[in-house]
Every structure is written in C-alpha cells, then in structure tokens.
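User: Predict DNA-directed RNA polymerase subunit omega's structure from this.
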Amino acid sequence: MSTIKPVIPNSTVTRDVRELDKTTDNIYESIVIISKRANQIANNLKEELHGKLAEFASSNDNLEEVFENREQIEISKHYERMPKPSLIAVDEFLHNKVYYRNPSKEQN
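Assistant:
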C-alpha cells in the first residue's frame, strides 16, 4: 500500500479564511497553531540541513574546496526548493494532521 503525499505548493496560495477557523472557531487561535507548527518544522529542517552540511565542514578553510563540492551545493539547492515551513504547516492544519490543545478551553 503506497501513501501519496499531498502536493504542497512552493509559492503563496490564496486561502479562504473561513477554512482556517473551522476546527477552532477562532481565526486567531488557528493562526497561532499554524505559526507554532511552522516554527517546529523550520527548526527541524534547520537541524537536518546543518547535520548534513556538517559532514562537509573542514578544519581549514580553503576557497577552492567550497566551490568544487557539488554534493554540498546539491543538498543546499534541495532545501531551497522545498516548500516553506508556513505552507507545510497550513497544509497540515487544513488536513487535520496537527495535534493541538487549548488548556483554557479544557478547564471550562
């Protein structure tokens, strides 16, 4: 059984604001959830990229090596082509793939 990943656009998308507040009944709460998720995604991608690029780090800085390392350039280009964390977070939120809770609502 293969899982098909949704296609997340690489550029901005016009969204219907009413779609964002369907699950929370509050657009501001939805935006906060999406924002926090986007920060998590950005941090994960940053750690992953730094981990991959750390393999190429050398103790001596040589300009010739920087320009000749095609594999490092390809890794960087791959991450640049990826959708932005905010677009991924919105897509996850709209497809109910984000777990969130509001303690103040739970107390009532």
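The helical segments are 17-20, 27-54, 63-68, 70-81, 85-94, 103-107.
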